[in-house]
Amino acid sequence: MCDDDSKGIEGLQALQRILEDAIEAGADAVELEYVDDGLEICCTFGNMGWGHVLTERGLIGQVIETVVEKANLEKRPRGKMHIDLFGKQQTIIVEEYESFGESVFRLILKESRRKRR
After folding, report:
1. Least enclosed by CB within 10 Å: which of 5, 41, 79, 109?
2. Is 85 within 8 Å of 19 (Cβ atoms)?
3. Residue 114 resides in a domain
4. Which residues pair with 54 in a beta bridge?
5. Residue 106 in contact with residue 29, Cβ under 8 Å?
6. How does residue 23 score in pLDDT terms, banded at 50, 70 and 90?
7. How far is residue 38's CA from residue 54's CA, in Å, rounded to a whole number?
8. Is the sign of the CA dihedral 50, 73, 71, 10 positive or negative?
9. Containing domain of residue 94, as a range?
10. Is residue 94 part of a domain?
11. Is 113 part of a structural domain of the chain?
12. Predicted TM-score (pTM) of this structure
């Protein structure tokens, strides 16, 4: 296996852990944002949230590259990502937006509780 492949796998595994932890906690979405200390991972529950910072510099880029690639965000700000979580394929809606000149990625885990009529 080449070094680039193992880095891609590490990024995917880290992203899977982030999303599985968020789902287990009951989060509606996860936001990934660059901060001075690393990558802020914020799980949101309605209008509240909690988070932590991923400080492993090498892993930060791999996680973001995985999100961009899997959601096909190279040329657009919104996409869908198919990822294996808890042993089954899940679809995650991904939105990229700008905050203070930096990209922020919002990974939506649950659809709105309001039903469209």
Report:
1. 5
2. yes
3. no
4. 39
5. yes
6. very high
7. 6
8. negative
9. 3-108
10. yes
11. no
12. 0.85
User: d(Cα 29, Cα 12) in Å, to the nearest integer?
Assistant: 18
Can you tell me the mean pLDDT for 66-95?
Answer: 95
Which tens digits make up the pLDDT trace of 90-101? 999 999 999 888
- As for how many domains the chain has, the answer is 1
3-state secondary structure the chain: CCHHHHHHHHHHHHHHHHHHHHHHHCCCEEEEEEECCEEEEEEEECCEEEEEEECCHHHHHHHHHHHHHHCCCCCCCEEEEEEEECCEEEEEEEEEEEECCEEEEEEECCCCCCCCC
Instruction: At 27, list the tokens.
Output: 């989060």
Tokens standing for residue 106 = 């919002």
- The enclosing domain of 86 has a CATH number of 3.30.450.90
